[in-house]
Amino acid sequence: MVLLKLTCPPERHKAVVAVSLSTSSPTCSLGAAEGSNPPFRIVLTLRLENSTQAGRPVTICTQGTVFAPAYEGAGLDTLALGTVGPLISNSDPQKKISLGHFKVHHARAARLPSANLKERDWLDFLTIPADGAVQVRHDLPISRMFRYEDSLTKDGLKAGDTYHFSISSGYFGTSWWCWGDLEGDLRHKKLSAWQEGINFEKAEKPTPAQIEKEGWVLGANPAELAFEDRIGSADFQFVD
Asked: What are phi and psi of 58, to 5 degrees?
């Protein structure tokens, strides 16, 4: 799912999520044993900046984004959805390693999903702290690196080769967010499918009485949470 990007003037931004792309190590071993620990990883670091509510964390829905969990053992992982562009050789841009670019189509639900997003088991959420940062890591051992690549193999690489990659813009952002911490003030709250700015599902907005009595939290306008890529691309080198 490619995100529908909504924009607004910078002065309306409630906060900025600064994202840095890196790898767990500057080198990736071609001879690393399968299952070696720790594996080579893609790392995304998220940090809040320019918040209009200092001291308050932000929680985002990560479905369909590069920030979604790896879903290990569940078939296609997050990287296979095209969330990160191909690994591109620094010396020969024609040499690329595709990590996958699959489109997943979900069957229409037999009944309307719960208005409480926490009860939708296909959704995941991530809290970005008010101070400090949170990291999302995607494992990328050599076996995974070439899983969906058709033309290039591990044998086509040599020690000293350097590659770079970047985040795909269509998977950079969020479709739903709110103020608060999943493990703190949101722990016993219900996350409403209704949100400011856009209402894809035509979800019913909880009344003030329902918000107070039932503990609903409304979604904020996705356009008012800006995501900024602070790195652009990350580099690494293959070693023996």
From this structure: -125, 140
Residue 188: burial class (beta carbons within 10 Å; 0-12, 13-18, 19+): exposed
The count of C-alpha atoms lying within 13 angstroms of the C-alpha of 143, restricted to the half-sphere facing its C-beta, is 6
Amino acid at 195: Q
Identify the CA nearest to 57 among candidates 123, 134, 119. 134
Tokens read off for 7? 């924009």
Question: Residue 106's pLDDT is what?
Answer: 62
189 φ/ψ sector (left φ>0, alpha ψ -120 to 50, else beta)? beta
d(CA 171, CA 101): 12
Q: How many helices (DSSP H) and strands (DSSP E) are in the chain?
A: 2, 14
143: left (phi over 0), alpha (psi -120 to 50) or beta: alpha
- In order along the chain (240 residues), what is the average pLDDT of each group of 10 residues? 79 97 97 84 97 97 93 77 96 96 70 90 95 96 94 94 96 96 97 91 93 97 96 95
Predicted confidence at residue 35, as pLDDT, reads 76
- DSSP secondary structure of 111-134: SPPPSBGGG-TT--EEEEPSSS-E
| CB-CB neighbours of 113 under 10 Å | 15
The pLDDT value recorded for residue 38 is: 87
- Can you give the pTM of this predicted structure? 0.92
Tokens representing 70?
């790896």
